Amino acid sequence: MFQAFEGDGPEPIGFLLVPRFSMMAVTSAIEPLRVANRLAGRTLFSWHLYSPDGAPVPASNGLPIVVDAAIEAFAGVPTLVVCPSFDPQLFETKPLLAALRRIARGGVTMVAVDTGAHFLARAGLLDGVRVTMHWEAVPGFREEFPGIEVSEELYEIAGRVVTCAGGTAALDMMLEMIRRKHGEALAVAVSEQFIHDRIRDRASAQRLPLASRLGTGNGKVVRAVAMMEAALERPVATQALAARLGVTARQLERLFRGHLGTTPGHHYLGLRLARARQLLQQTEMTISEIAVATGFSSASSLSRAYRGRFAVPPRLDRRLAPRSPAATSAGAARRPEAEARAGTAARAGPGRT
Asked: Do residues 82 and 180 both lie within one domain?
């Protein structure tokens, strides 16, 4: 996509839509192309939609989208943008992964938005490539593919592999592509059409600053939470946190109650349990493995805390998650044997829009 296009006519870009794909990410990627054509007064780009089997695809909001063809018919297009669901493992079938490998071998630029890097990783297309994805999907991806470096950039460009955090980051990625190929003026004009006040650099943060997310500007509270988020696997005691901040444990307790309405320990536990739920929903890790990854001494201690926070034990929470029938056998085959015997179902992804 970022390479020079040497063909005749408009530059074609393919989009592989997987069931429950992010409508926000796809429209953020396609609409800049449409507006660039209009403002340029000529057709610079064309877009072509594919699905795993050629059938209409339901988006994340339930709207069915008609496609041009099945992915097996993909040919003659230099770029393929993979647009997965928030729980990509549910649709990683052997035929689809084989199709992605075939397409990549043909020299096609592979672009993965949101959790699309999971598809490329499963297809073996990310060796030595640094990737990015939606921040909410990062913990599970790192556990499943520890050898792949993950950044927090809006998008990453590595030759013929491009990854994007999804959402409106896809807009910035496309604006940068338009800028490189057709000039700053056109990219800025397209951005203004979307009332997008600036074209964000790829290194821009995906998330709001921690202080904004917490709703407080107290430096000690913000720093304490940052230290907690950086040490979920090996929790730091409240006294140790306080010492690093130059206050007493009692002072830190007062600061947390005054600014967050809770104690440091309770807030820390909430962060660890939220991570545990992400791993439960995004990976095939066993409960014991998740306990280790979130700083609990055992699966039973995690289960007790999990039930107290979410009113459901982790195994049942995983079983109740919606799944794709087509992924049943594939998911069971990858799941650790102990979990498979327990009948644990595939998990649902984060509840993004």
From this structure: yes
* Cα three-residue angle 37-41-45, rounded to 5 degrees: 25
Whether residue 16 has pLDDT greater than 90: yes
Tell me the pLDDT of the chain averaged across its residues.
Answer: 89
Identify which of 237, 218, 170 has the alpha carbon closest to the alpha carbon of residue 24.
170
Quote the tokens at residue 111: 């672009």
Which has the minimum average pLDDT: 104-118, 198-212, 278-292? 198-212
Sign for the CA dihedral angle at 7, 8, 10, 14 comes to negative
pLDDT digits (tens, 9 = 90+) for 168-204: 999 999 999 999 999 999 999 999 999 988 888 888 8
Which of the listed residues 140, 167, 193 is the one where a domain comes to its end? 193
Residue 11's beta-bridge partner residues?
Answer: 45
CB 164 within 8 A of CB 114: yes
CA–CA dist 48, 28 (Å, integer): 15
Extract the tokens encoding 223.
Answer: 């720093």
- Structural domain that includes position 141: 11-193
Q: How far is 123 from 321, CA to CA, in rounded Å?
A: 25
Regarding whether 170 and 232 lie in a shared domain, the answer is no
- Which token pair is 309? 């926070």
Residues 189 and 214 in one domain: no
**CB burial of residue 253 (10 Å; 0-12, 13-18, 19+):** middle
**Nearest partner of 125 among 146, 153, 97, 84, judged by Cα:** 97
Question: What is d(CA 274, CA 235) in angstroms, rounded to the nearest whole number?
Answer: 14
Give the strand pairing for 155-158 and 161-164.
antiparallel
Instruction: Determine the length of the chain.
Output: 353
Name the band, by pLDDT with cuts 50, 70 and 90, for residue 327.
very low
Asked whether residue 306 is assigned to any structural domain, the reply reads yes
Query: What is the domain count for the chain?
Result: 2
